[in-house]
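Subject: for your reference before the review

Hello V.,

The reviewers asked for a structural picture of the protein, and I figured it would be easier to keep everything in one thread rather than splitting it across files. Below is the amino acid sequence we used in the manuscript, unchanged from the supplementary table.
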Amino acid sequence: MQPRRQPPPAPRSGPGNPRPTPLLALLLLLAPVVAPAGSSGAENPAQPQDAGVPRRLLQQAARAALHFFNFRAGSPSALRVLAEVQEGRAWINPKEGCKVDVVFSTERYKPESLLQEGEGRLGKCSARVVFKNQKPRPAINVTCTRLIEKKKRQQEDYLLYKQMKQLKNPLEIVSIPDNHGHIDPYLRPIWDLAFLGSSYVMWEMTTQVSHYYLAQLTSVRQWKTNDDTIDFDYTVLLHELSTQEIIPCHIHLVWYPGKPLKVKYHCQELQTPEEASGTEEGSAVPTELSNF
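And here is what came back from the structure prediction:
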């Protein structure tokens, strides 16, 4: 094995090597950090060593964008999960946070047994995600292509809606999935609706370093309503990966196919009141959702 070559010493300032001007130094500081999906970013001198960039940050931005996308789409038939981060860049300011542009592919959030041929991969999404240091609720603008056909999505949503409305007794369920990780097919619509509402909560709680996923529903109650909506109260366990914490959240969801999703929630063991509770309708948050 050949010995590792040491980098040449930095040239000294002098007549042939003038010091960079303040303007040049500022431009170098503001230059974007560009990295392919598989790069570690360690060789980029413009990148702060403690920023955790790029692949982990690109994945974090892509997941946050998908939480936001799923919530705003408001359709349990159109849920997506991250398949692969393909490329991205990040502008990093240690004092203020970072702005991430990321391109990634997605998969349909549906059991393989229920997928039709060619239905798994759903094409690309591109997103701009702005993290404000350790503050939750990143600002997101996301655009996706090759979405499920609108007519097909509406048909699947209405079928799920009809199944829920035809129940003679409102549901009261404990533990989805069960202790063996199994979800009965007849409970899958409940899980998908819970995932839909939880997407809003997970987006609101996401920071530059914290990432959540839905681990389990510990209780579900469907309420009878005087209008046409589906009305649920449910408790979820959210798993935060960096700390391995399990956080219980109580969520109230109101859904009707084709209309903005309504979500209210309260979570335990969070650090600040703004992180611990919230309420939202799907039309209230500015963003861009192309081809939907």
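For the response letter, the relevant points are probably these. The radius of gyration is 22 Å. Residues 1-52, 271-277, 282-292 have pLDDT under 50 and may be disordered.

Happy to draft the paragraph if you're swamped.

O.
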